[in-house]
Specification:
By secondary structure, the chain is mainly α. It has helices at about 5-65, 70-80, 85-115, 120-125, 130-160, 165-170, 175-210, 215-245, 250-255, 255-280. The relative contact order is 0.10.
Length: about 280
């Protein structure tokens, strides 16, 4: 067909308009699908953090309690409660400790790999799609009371955790002191469990809303904080292992972890004050 004829060109114009309309409609549909996909993507993040909070809490619970079988078996063997030599009891206790630690590390690694695609939420500045902010904000509002209750319960349990040890000290029974030490560790583990279940899930919602520790300004500091942690925690672990193997006082050396945790928060706080002063 020759397009040199004016009438033939006119005949093709409705087809051109139809094709243009089709392309425009297709682009709008693609954009709508992208928007829905974005909302679903963020919805998956919220649901995943809900699942991850429980897994991380269980792994931490196992880590805190992992030395307990060692203490109990060693104490039972020493005081004749269990017909087993102290060396055998210590060996079995160490095996259980390593198995519990291995399970916990496996859970941590699994959560880390599954969370890797969403790491950008902690570090990068992003725009929240239409409808996502309202959905997440509503979930955060509904979860707030649970978050507060779990944190109060967890902190209170950690505060009262030394009470069994004080009771054992008053009774002057060494085996009872060993048992009470295990009870103390159990109370701490339960308290930390509640705080992690609430905290991890709450942090997931804050990441999407870019609130709290995940505001644009805080994200600029996270790079430095991450580097501090990469140096700090390996040093703490080395000190813990060295102190424990040299002194063989595993019942005392575990105290380094809560102390190191509090100290780490203090270090980050000092860095925060320093960075604010530099910007000011």
């Amino acid at each position: 067909i020759s397009l040199s004829n004016g009438r033939e060109v006119q005949d093709w114009k409705p087809i051109y308009r139809l094709l243009h309309h089709y392309n425009s409609l297709s682009n709008k549909m693609d954009n709508s699908l992208l928007a829905v996909r974005g909302i679903n993507h963020k919805y998956i993040v919220v649901e995943w953090r809900k699942s991850a909070s429980l897994r991380i809490a269980i792994a931490t619970f196992l880590c805190i309690l992992s030395p307990a079988p060692l203490f109990l078996l060693a104490g039972m063997a020493e005081f004749g409660v269990l017909p087993m030599s102290e060396d055998l009891a210590g060996g079995v206790g160490l095996v259980v400790l390593l198995l519990l630690a291995a399970v916990a590390v496996g859970i941590y690694l699994s959560c880390g790999f599954r969370n890797a695609p969403y790491d950008f939420l902690e570090k990068e500045i992003f725009e929240v799609e239409y409808g996502v902010r309202g959905m997440v904000a509503e979930r955060q509002k509904l979860y707030r009371n649970t978050y507060v209750r779990f944190n109060i319960l967890g902190v209170c349990l950690c505060v009262i955790s030394p009470l069994p040890l004080f009771v054992a000290m008053g009774m002057e029974d060494e085996f009872l002191a060993t048992v009470q030490l295990t009870v103390t560790m159990l109370i701490v583990a339960v308290g930390v469990f509640f705080m992690l279940v609430a905290g991890v899930r709450w942090a997931g919602m804050q990441k999407l809303l870019q609130e709290g520790e995940f505001t644009v300004r805080e994200k600029e500091k996270n790079g430095v904080k991450e580097k501090i942690g990469q140096i700090y925690w390996p040093v703490v672990t080395a000190v813990y292992l060295g102190w424990s193997f040299i002194t063989e006082d595993w019942g005392m050396t575990w105290i380094i972890w809560p102390v190191a945790g509090v100290l780490f928060v203090g270090i980050l706080g000092i860095y925060g004050l320093w960075s604010e002063k530099e910007k000011g």
